[in-house]
Fold each of these.
Amino acid sequence: MKINLKVWRQKNGNAAGKLVDYKLDNISPDMSFLEMFDVLNDELMHKGEEPVAFDHDCREGICGMCSMYINGRAHGPQTGATTCQLHMRSFADGDTIIVEPWRARAFPVIKDLMVDRSAFDRVVQSGGYVSVNTGSARDANETLIPRTIADEAMDAAQCIGCGACVAACKNASAMLFVAAKVSHLAVLPQGQAEASIRAERMVAQMDAEGFGACSFTGACSVECPKSISLDHIARLNREYLGAKITSEAV
Amino acid sequence: MNLESKIPEGPLAEKWARHKFGLKLVNPANKRKYEVIVVGTGLAGASAAASLAELGYTVKAFCFQDSPRRAHSIAAQGGINAAKNYQNDGDSVFRLFYDTIKGGDYRAREGNVYRLAEVSVNIIDQCVAQGVPFAREYGGLLANRSFGGAQVSRTFYARGQTGQQLLLGAYSALSRQIANGKVKMFPRTEMLDLVVEGGKARGIITRNLVTGKIESHSAHAVLLCTGGYGNVFYLSTNAMGSNVTAAWRAHKKGALMANPCFTQIHPTCIPVKGKYQSKLTLMSESLRNDGRVWAPKTKEDAEKIRKGELKPTDLKEEDRDYFLERRYPAFGNLVPRDVASRNAKYVCDEGRGVAATGLAVYLDFADAIKRDGRTTIEAKYGNLFEMYEKIVDDNPYETPMMIYPAVHYTMGGLWVDYNLMTTIPGLYALGEANFSDHGANRLGASALMQGLADGYFVVPYTLGDYLATIGHADKLPVEAPAFKAAEAEVKHMVDRLLSAKGERTPEEIHRELGHIMWDYCGMSRSAEGLKKAKGMIQDLKKEFWTNMRVVGDAEEMNQALEQAGRVADFIELGELMVDDALAREESCGGHFREEYQTEDGEALRDDANFAYVAAWEYKGDNQPEVLHKEELVFENVKLTQRSYK
């Protein structure tokens, strides 16, 4: 396959960036999208040019590190998949592909296609946990958690924290990410004690990080590689409103 | 050098309890005065950092990824073992201990393995309390499954994403401590050297991967939780960034490296497709619970399949060879990983492999679907099937999956005593980075167990003993000459990597190293091949330092520079692995020497001469390393030939 690439190049967070054209021949349809980038970088390095910086690690769709905005879609044209799970067979010979970093105020560009997503970590630090010290747990089977509840928690908990929801949102809102964490812990008995304060704090931190508001268009859920449902946003809203009414904290 | 394992006296079941009581404690008011560095934030690192901070220690944690949540533990699929015996099927701490030590082909310490089995039950409790959504039965009790080589159902799981959920649990505990100000987190930061002074570990030198800044960090103790070195093979199931650098640089500063040749080749991975391939994807071992492994009976049929003239579903039952079921009627498709991998290799060596490369066998779910229905199979393995389809573009509900072994885990690692301390006082190694619990082969669902055991339940006790002994005044400031010298050394290495103006990229050299390791130090090894490989690796090292080229600068994000440093260390490690494999003149677990096998091709151990841990001491650049032996003592199990027939 022949592929024409337009790739966002930006030296660092302070520099201006621009789209740069590259042409690649001999791309196999069996290559993953990132392997296609490996080929590009290999060519660039042989020419003595700087390779394109991009985040990637597990290359099997679970670490959440890869983050490319491909032809106007977070993680590209496939649904329910990360960039690393996208294969060149999803494109046609001679296609032009535009590759940009996640665009959001809360995710500043570090270099080329690489962005800083530490805002997500700070949101989790604000309350995305159950306060239980090591060693103080009781027997795991003492709390009965029906399968349906465990499944519901797991549906939310499988968020990989990649930030595609933010990148896909016209407001760069992080509601789906926050909702997934709040929801995961809110449906489980272990998370009950801190449910209100968790929702309040995580939402407050999300706002402080500069993420936009949610206008419930659903783009996040469509682009989410784990297809996390909008239902969780509904639950977050309920948790948050309930917390606001009953709690004096924050 | 005297390798003292510090295994406590007394009956096996009482060792850990007695030992814990004998350990010195740090006064609660003094704990904050002690600083601890944790490198790596996977299961071992995140759990250790969180637990130590909860106790009151001042912790600094480092990871090269952009967030601690991304460590490669996240990719573990199948599950985590624990001797809960919730299923009433005869499990016990002793049975988990026994299975693990036998599964490791009797090359691990009894004391360590027993402790691992003992604390396994606490891990499940802890994770559930954190909100880890393990699979449940309708009544609300935890679900279990049997897993690779075990005859009891003791594996806990969260769909095919158990590692992810356990890591997110540990990450949430870590996040809570970061918010509390007890842990200072340094993401996108790579450890490039260990600082040793006065015979003790004093801190580390790091490079900020965004700015390129080289920095010193001082502490009373350093914990390396940096995972395994499977990427020495270039292609493996490890993440692209997984590397040996932290452990290797500690090794060069005096920490002994134990059993480096013990690597695990996982039987069920998606086969290699082309030269550009950057990594291999594991298909969880749990698939072998329902999938049947087979290859065509004849070379002729295999060839037709390779050419696309025949489909696997065209082959009649009598033309298929379910080779694991045939050779191992008792365990069938559930034999341990090393056995399953080797047999797949034999079949392909005979010319009966499938896929265009001839390097694949089938994992077939047709019978399971017929028996249990597609819905049941989908519920169990849906996400794995989907993952397979995305990569291979083939529907495994209709066509059997193709699998082939791939490098997955490294049992070898830094030598540690019972306290998880390396041969450098104050330097600890946890999780896959140490060598301690899996012997020559790790059983499925045991890596997650070990990482969390070390981090949650072992090091929080044993570290206190060391800290109480040295006292909080015994810390070196970062202005000390030892730090300055180590910083200068690191800067020199960075400059050296950037100054080479050759032709080849670090990636190309890495790929070449991988081929050497896979061909000669992979699933099957021989003295002749290993000797040849040693020469090839030495040549490659020369090539690396004379004909390599890294574009870009030191003071910026430079991924090629990061990779070059890691490849330099992999090359040196590769040579040591070859030495270790050559010195171990027996076959055991994942280490299979062609010269040492039974008549029917099984691994032939030599307990009289090789029941020891091989711990290697670094002696300087291009100098042969020195072998030290820690004899393994078995008082509670009888060493038998592993039989899964």
Amino acid sequence: MTTAVITGIGVAAPNGAGTENFWAATLRGESGIGPVRRFDARGYPARLGGEIDDFDPAEHLPHRLLPQTDRMTQLALTASAWALADAGVEPGTYDPGETGVTMAGAFGGFEYGQRELENLWRSGPERVSVYMSFAWFYAVNTGQLSIRHAMRGPAGVVVGDQAGGLDAVAQARRNIRKGARLMLSGGFDSSFCPYGWVARISDGTLSTDEDPRTAYLPFDRRARGQVPGEGGAVLVVEEAAAARRRGTRIYGEIAGYAATFDAAARYGGERGLGRAVEAALADAGVTAREVGVVFADGSGWPADDRAEAETIAAVFGPQGVPVTVPKTMTGRMSSGGAPVDLAGALLAMRDGLIPPTVNVRTVAPGARLDLVTGVPRPWQPGPALVLARGRGGFNSAMVLRPGTAAPGRTGAAGVTGREIPTRSGGKRHAADDTVGPGGDHA
Amino acid sequence: MVITGLGVVAPGGVGTKAFWHLITAGRTATRPITAFDAAAFRSRIAAEVDFEPAQADLSHRERRRLDRAAQFALVATREAIADSGLEPDRFDPTRVGVSLGTAVGATCNLESEYLALSDTGRDWVLDHRYASPHLYDYFMPGSMAAEIAAECNAQGPATVVSAGCTSGLDAVGHAADLLREGAADVMVTGGTDAPISPITVACFDAIRATSPSNDDAAHALRPFDRTRNGFVLGEGAATLVLETEEHARARGARIYAEIAGFASRSNAYHMTGLRPDGAEMAAAITAALAESRRSPQSVDYVNAHGTATKQNDRHETAALKRALGPHAYRTPVSSIKSMIGHSLGAIGSIEIAACTLAVDQGVVPPTANLREPDPELDLDYVPLHAREQRLDTVLSVGSGFGGFQSAIVLTRLGTGPA
């Protein structure tokens, strides 16, 4: 069957806008979580979030696009240009009809939406923007990206909360298999506005902790909820043979994928994550033993964490595989979270370093996980499993396999103990403070 | 991939029978808006569903928990499951999935919640103490797929597809894709939207996409007519039970029709505008026919997008000529939106339900309100009256904001290439 590979990455995350900014911060263990500043959050029971501070859309986008786009679209448009530049794709590389876009969203552009609701109800229908009909809706990023990059092939949009981010990339692979040569895919969410915030609070899953270092602690004994983040990633997904012909670097292959839904309580409530993992591994033709790292969903709620830890232990054995949650540095970015994890997994393959889970110290009793905490861990790159779960019962799992370096480029795959830039400007070797299997929490 | 169950909630009456009766009779369900006081708006008409949640057998909790769009989807799904004869304890739930289309999700509740939270628009910083405990579900419309999955005991892949006005068509196409690649044996699929709320009406007012024919609501949506002046907002839902032929045969299910091919394309042109040549819609039609292994000449009927905007009807006519060649002139093309309005993310699946019944019953539903042909539009748009005709291959197309162009092919089982 046609192989789909990833050749370009564009990330905009709270701990770094721009793929290398994000990745350097992630390897340094630098978190983008802090008090929310975009609006006055003082009156809300949860006040921490992962906001992207170093992003001014006017620096990246034509000014005519600014009044017609929500922030999450501005982020997606910018990251898509980064991803295409990273892949070395230019106008003319492919016929526009062979290129398409499948993006995930969970909330739409609701900062824009809230402003226009206010215009309607304060000032009347004639004050509603002519752009409102499409600026807020869930399909907007696929539409805007396809226009911006003149991609006239397959188009799609999925909404499955956090899991949607993987479902969209799976849809890109499906379209490659159906004949497209290049797909842009991923997910973005923001809605860092009072309405978006109140909606998240109503869910009851946000952490009310005021300390950014302890508010979101997936798998930790002290776990007490989630912290939202804004952002996401765009990936360039290409048909493997076409990518090889043009001699571009291949980060990795989308080797396997599956999605399941938890049984409703009235039907026994059985969780579906384990089935998704098994089916994704089978789809990839990869055994559990071969998997080198798991990017966990890491809900931050003890019951969800326990279920995920049990699933991972059941498939890979106790402490059977390194597990990480770099989302501890970004917060949970809704449909953007899993695409950023895919990006993280691909960069981990490139650099031979598994990014850490920060702030987590004492893994909850019974969670038999080899959690990569504190600092990056060198690894011999192999297949990576990325998990994402959405509220209501969505489970998605994707397996990535390392790619091959293009001729003439030094592939870092397989290199371990790479130097990591530290915040102070000095260097240290990752191997020096690696948490071994079992780690400091065993 | 065969269709074994149908459920419809459409303007003019809840249930598949009422829907089919309305559209084959050529009657229209467009009328002055009753959902709210629309006096301040340019377009004050809509095709509303007379929907009484209690009569639709929704429990008190379902009525409290679910947005109107989710209620529509649930009612349509219950009808479709009953129609298909699937019994929850007689299938493998891990092999059943959900693919639900919606363009604007829980818009009604998002707006009414906003009014409470903001004190009718006064405050930017909203008061969370007034929030419904279900607000997150309204905010993240994937919750509607979750609701349907829980209803059907579906434990396979579940998702919402939200590609604007092609959502309902794309959701069914996505379901067919998942069956084809073996991810499930049964997909419960369709679309829903309940967009008749002030903010949505204001959105379409702002770009003058909706008809201002407020004084003649019943004849306001006039696809392909010289006097057409925009669409009329509608609402509703349709659910299809789609399964592999093998699975349907094994359980002895009645088979309405087959979903033989699907494709979607972007026009990469404009968020609300259409390129006049219809090239991308034509590309979607060509790809869907190729996947169906049918020739353009085999198409017996086209269910059009037919929104009655100046631009759409020209674009679509050009696309059909481009994709079907001279055969386009011999093919009946009709828009059922003329009767039930444009229900955004629902209409694509309601139209597939219409196509399914058209194949099953051998009837082409008409384009209502088409009295003055537009000399620029020269296909056979089936004005006013339904036609009896055997249909083996039917094409349904959709087009939406964001540039989405989609096409799906339904066939009578046992016809065409083996």
Amino acid sequence: MARLKILVVDDEPFIRSGIIRILQNFRVDYPFMDEPFEFDLLEASTGEEGIEVINNQLPDIVLLDNKLPGIQGVEVLSYIKSQKLDVVVVMITSYASLDLAVRATNDGAHDFIPKPFTPQELKSAIEAITKQVFLRRMTRELKVTGKQIRFQFLSVLSHELKAPLNAIEGYLRMMQEKQLGDKIDDYAQVIDRSLQRIKGMRSLILDLLDMTRIESGQKEKKIERLNLREIAQNALDTAKPMAIQRDISLHLLSPTEVWIDADATEMEIVFNNLISNAVKYNKDGGKVECKIISEDDVVKIEVRDTGIGMTQEEAARLFQEFVRIKNEKTKAITGTGLGLSIVKKIVTTYMGTISVESQPDEGSTFKISIPLKKLTH
Amino acid sequence: MINLAGKTVLLADDDPDYLFQIKFLLEKNGYHVITADSQREAEKILEKIKPDLAILDLMMENEDSGFILSYKIKKMYPDVPVIIATAVTAETGISFEAAGESDMRWIKADLFLPKGLRPDQFLREVASILKK
């Protein structure tokens, strides 16, 4: 049986005994939890006494009245905050104004319960908080065991896969119920959008496969001597139809041929991602330059565009999985949010680095550098 | 029986297909719908219009856009009910946690709805929250 300690801080004895009566036989059950939670109740009649109990007994949840004879509830709250204690604070307040509640929640209170409350209201609040405490602890545990990142990834992934499914399902339902008319032509846009969403989902699955392959490391790299200029040229040719439509010019700046020992598929993924991004996030009439140079024992690849660019803050998040910069300028551009994180993973396997320099509205430059040495793979 | 027809719903979501479908569904049932495809646009609309109900996506420009909007709506118009519609399953919990960890302001949405509800279920939820 899991138990949580609840401390009730209130100067009115009948409120304390009321809360204790309501909660002492209360249990919270949750599908994710192995066993239900029950509660041990502690009480304090002043803020000072409350702090003493908090220090000695380490409660999990504190139900805190704001109006107390000595120090006020908010001061107890700021004490808990300053000590960085793992305690969830719920304000009980007769001033059930949103204002005080917002101020208290800004100061770190988790929730508030307006006074007077019914037993049911108290129980619902405690139930919600118990789940929150449970999830928070589980998250921390998962973080420790390293499972958390994977869990979060799967959770975002399921979100990304479900969104197109919902959209397509919604459209099919509209067709099934003939909501837009009797003729198939009435559904041209609906069909078009459904196909678009399917296309998006397919790219996501392909990106996922790329990523899994790189991450698992199970597929051995097929290292061969590659002419990077040739791979870059192929990637530029692939992007050309999209670039022509928007009057974007593509340039390959590579004074000499640059050779590297690497896996061809992986280098293709790197160039295709960077160059197609440079076109996608460009402005009409813009320019894309791909520069490859070999100096000392390093190969340097630069892909520069004259596109919408991004802020430093946005750039900092860019290589994470599923991060897509969402703003007015990007909302019409589709993408999986995995491309750059895949590129980064590949570059890292070659002991290389990738970085981005960007100015909003002026453009971005992605820079990769890979040390040139025989890989022993 | 309260007449729900003519009630104004603010619908904020960055998925154009979801916006289109839910707007269509609500309008067919007599609601007046204003759409916003981003948190920013929703904020602009809220400055001018007080809706009778707000239905918000959770992840838009920010991973917790829905929470931020909900907080702002409750501050401006405490009596406007807020529904947060999301494809993030509540059971995983983790994504909510990630959204909340940066700021522990606990946002009071009136209802969380999963996306992909059947239209009749969705309409029932909307009607019942407006009747409160």
Amino acid sequence: METLFLSLTVLLAAGILPLLGHRLFTLMKACYVALTITGCVIGLYSLCPISQLPSQSTLVVDWLHIFQLQFSLDSLSTFFLIPVFFVCPLAVLYVFHYMNKKAEHARTGVNFFFFNLLIIAMALVVIADNMISFALSWEIMSLASFFLVLHEYEQETTRRAGYIYLLFTQLGALCIFLGMGVGYGYTQSLDFAPLSTLPEGLKLWMFCLVLVGFGSKAGVFPIHIWLPYAHPAAPSNISAIMSGVMIKMGIYGVVRFYGLLDISSPVAGQIVLSFGIVSGVLGVIYALGKQDIKKLLAYSSVENIGVILIGLGVGMIGATQGNTGMAIFGFVGGLLHVLNHSLFKSLLFLGAGTVAKQTGTRQLDQLGGLIKRMPLTGKSFLIGSVSISGLPPFNGFVSEFLIYIGAFQGLVLGGMHCVFAMLAILALALIGGLAAACFTRIVGIVFLGEPRADNSAAAKEAGWTMTFPMVILAASCLIIGVWPEPFVHYAFKGVETLLVQTTLDEVLLLEITQKMALASQVFLGLFVVLLVARKFLYRGKQVQSGPTWGCGFTQPTVRIQYTGTSYAMSIVEFFRPMVRLHTHYAGIKRIFPSQASYETHVDDIAEQTLIERIVEPLLFLLGKLRWIQHGHIQLYIGYIIITILVALLCISEGPREILRGLL
Amino acid sequence: MISFLSLVLALLAAPLYPGIILKVKAFFAGKKGPPLLIKYYTLLKLLQKGSVYSTSSSFVFTLGPVVSFAAAIFPLCFFPFAGSASLVSFYGDVVLLFYIMGIGRFFTVVAALDTASPFEGMGAAREVFFSTLAELAIFAILILFYRLTGSLSLNDYFHGENIITLAGVSGALIVLVIVALFMVLLTENSRVPVDDPATHLELTMIHEVMILDHSGPDLALIELGAFYKLFFYAAFIIQLIFPFTAPFSILNMLLFFILMALVYVAVGVIESIMARFKMDLVPKFILTSFALVFFAVILTMGVLQ
């Protein structure tokens, strides 16, 4: 625990440094990067012994004389701290070449400060052990990330994105605090521990409230609307951390409060599972419909949050039904997917940032052929794409596989539980296929083929501090895919703290993981053998190169390539009732046609509904009350006095006494 | 030993069977048709040639054939041919196998997109769409099998005491599965009515158009991989139709390889008497297979009682 706080202190120091020394730009950046990495390494080191020992350490600090801040570290927190301390330093290293505009030194310094504040706040959220410390860290985290989104504040779209993010994060916080209020109202204590004594009905209410709150942070459909705005607006290292690590804090909240509340009704699990299925399927369909790479990745985060929730939902149903196999596999799969997603999603966002920086555009249909111009970025992005599609032998498959096993074990249950397990399996299968479609699209259109515009033809590989983190992340995707046992073990330790009252047996889990890993290793081996065999087959053969076969067409241009839009169109159309597809076609009409144009965009149904059904009626209603705002300061003061008087009269006896005394 | 032998036999015999399809089609057309061993000759010819690579393509293009071949050969190691125990198996291997096939498809698709050809992009887009739907049907089958056997491994499905077969207690459900699986076989192996490998218009093809630019040994790997994939699905269907419970494993094996021809004849007959569907009918075709299995699953559940 002390080591952990040492690391947080180092991180804070590293964050304050750029505020003071931003004029010496390069030196400041170097010092900042070095210090932050040191801090994170200390943080990782502090986690080492606890991953093996189930011991728990607690720290209590008094704050403002009234409140106590309480932090404790158990294996669930440890598991969530791994992505924080592993992915953040890589994103920080990436910054060195990524933010290289010397003219913006002050702004960069501020950005660095808030970045470190975000890392510290995330670590604190995970180890917070009572409501007040949780709320405090949660708000620091939300505000720090809000300022990070606003990095390029002079653009209107960025400001808009920032406000949408702030709105959602604060509404989410409102729900969380409301949920905590329910708990506090009953237990009269700010501690987490007594929450398990709540009556069952109240528990469910509290869980639903915090689920909505945490869901808005995690990006659960339909309250994911901020993600596709905030991620493209923020710089790429920020979106990598926000999407890779920060939204997982929402998942942490759900998991932690589930464990604290100790709900025995399966409804909680069914709700989580349903949210998971909806987010997973719709997230990936919207990802297929998007043109902006970072928007696409944002929707893909919604999808992966869905996969995580499916795992957790399966685990929750299993836990309440006494099906320990289902509980273990579901929870472990879900938690492992948290770690996996933090690796490949940050990798993909960093890759997207590199592409955007080197080509100047994020539009899919302007890019192409980048793997030859940016080989390291391209290869790591390819690995990230295979991993996120959940294909073996990479890490995404391991977690999805465990969730599958958990859901299959749920099929022996009767009635509704069996239907939910079945839906989980079918949803995972659908998500898997669609994710592969989505990521073959992004890899194929952005990195393969021929460049579709001049700026991507002229692109060059980025500096080493930008490619090196991506290579590391890609390597870790493969490592978890091929040697998943220790990671599965860590996740299992986390689940053990979650479900304290049931005895869980790790043997079956490790056995199946081991065999699956062995099969993945064999597959990898087979692949290498075949690569060698292919070399052998080509020995002494004539290998030529020529243009692509144009099927008889002799004048091909790069513009006849399949585009991202056309690639995804048939799939998006198939899911039409759930996706709004708008097409504008000014076509060829006369013998000598004028300029033809074709434009298509996919609207988010949740966002449209929110605007049409809630925001617009609300604006109309509130517009009627506009006369209250008239600009006369005397009357405003009158409002204040009346409000205070009414408030005083309404609340308890004490002020009423004072009031009587005054009169 | 017998498992290993049957695997080797399967690997050797897989290119023979597509020859049967050609023979059947020739019979319907009133022609003599190519020799039965035509596919072996083709493979030999391809292996002796060099290759031409497109100037647009990168290393991803060469990865396509290798990964798709590895992904096609790998599932056969898990298959219990003719009721003998499979070479390797573990709880959950079916999930792994269908995902391994997924990675094969992933790399076929990106290799197609690497050529910058509009036709190959078109084929790739169709392939990912249709295979997604087919995956749904396959996992519905796995759900049904789990309800029937409580297992998640090919070996447990077809080897041992509690095997899934048409002759078993739940034979009526298996009829639905066999029909659905045959439809998935046609889809996943790009046969008529989903795809037509013999058409002369690249616009209408799916799988064949994705491999237009591959040549020489690369193309041989792809072709051989396609034979293995077809063999896997055909073997799956045969195992469902006929329980190989005879005590003599050699006899079983012989019977297995003879019965396998049936599936290929069926494919050949379908290809001779049907035309390819319009592209927008294909999703409905695949979803029909899903609906069939889903119906079978509902029958096992008793939720509606």
